[in-house]
Write a structure and sequence with these properties.
Strand content: over 45%
Mean pLDDT: 76
Largest sheet: 6 strands, antiparallel
Helix content: 10-25%
Number of strands: 15
CATH architecture of the largest domain: Sandwich
Radius of gyration: 24 Å
Structural class: mainly beta
Number of domains: 2
CATH topology of the largest domain: Jelly Rolls
Shape: elongated
Number of helices: 3
Distance between the termini: 31 Å
Order of helices and strands: EHHEEEHEEEEEEEEEEE
Length: 248
């Protein structure tokens, strides 16, 4: 594996503890494949140790089959050419009940042209904005219910998360200059959106994505979209999708 990093999906875990040589020995004893690379052993042992799993509590370590992923693991934009998943079955130290966690390793070199990693606790949702008709002015787009937004009015976030993407379709009728779709959070503009350089009439479309946690939000935050246009541009029929990613 090249430049391995680690992400994880887990159901429950105890307080973090550092476990070194004993954990390494246990991992190698219970792993299902003796051919697993040394890097894999290190990642699995470090991950299990930090999640508070004691060596004596580990029952089995297996590599997950991509053709039958467990329900706890949901992955977008990534396949088995650049990703490996290892399942650790163990007993809860406090209760003795059987539990499991997953170690997900992947190659950053092979993932540079891929999308981001979405695991089971991450959920993508889309907020719909639009405008039906013609206009020459700047103004807020309407929600999916037809209500026009404002600095104080928009979609109210129910969970913590972040803004991870935006796409826009619109039609320019006349004029030259610049047209922007600006995201507002709690009445303040965010430095992320769609920008169109208008040189002639016609259909315009743009889409942009970014990683999680660059533009975070909290429950109760209000999100709205605003069309800002150069004077003299006539536009119509805007369709905008705002992608948000939440983790609970």
């Amino acid at each position: 594996m090249v430049s391995l990093l680690i992400a994880s999906v887990f159901i429950t875990a105890a307080d973090s503890k550092i476990i070194d040589s004993e954990m390494e020995r246990t991992v190698k004893e219970v792993a299902d494949s003796p051919e697993l690379a040394e890097e894999v052993y290190k990642y699995v042992e470090e991950f299990a140790g930090k999640k508070g799993v004691l060596p004596q509590d580990i029952n089995e370590i297996t590599q997950v089959d991509f053709n039958s992923l467990p329900k706890e693991v949901n992955i977008d934009n990534i396949d088995d050419t650049n990703l490996a998943i290892y399942q650790i079955d163990y007993n809860q130290p406090s209760t003795g009940e059987k539990d499991k966690l997953f170690v997900i390793t992947y190659s950053t070199e092979q993932l540079r042209s891929q999308g981001d990693l979405i695991v089971a606790q991450d959920k993508r949702e889309f907020l719909n904005f639009g405008f039906n008709g013609e206009s020459k002015d700047s103004g807020f787009l309407k929600s999916a219910t037809g209500v026009e937004g404002s600095l104080e009015k928009g979609y109210v976030m129910m969970r913590a998360g972040s803004i991870t993407g935006i796409s826009t379709y619109l039609e320019v009728l006349e004029g030259i200059g610049q047209l922007e779709i600006i995201i507002y959070k709690n009445g303040e503009a965010i430095q992320f959106g769609n920008t169109f350089v208008i040189t002639s009439p016609g259909v315009q479309k743009d889409y942009d994505i970014q990683s999680k946690n660059i533009v975070p939000f909290e429950p109760g935050d209000i999100i709205s979209l605003y069309v800002k246009t150069t004077e003299g541009i006539s536009w119509k029929d805007v369709i905008s999708l705002l992608e948000i990613t939440t983790s609970n």
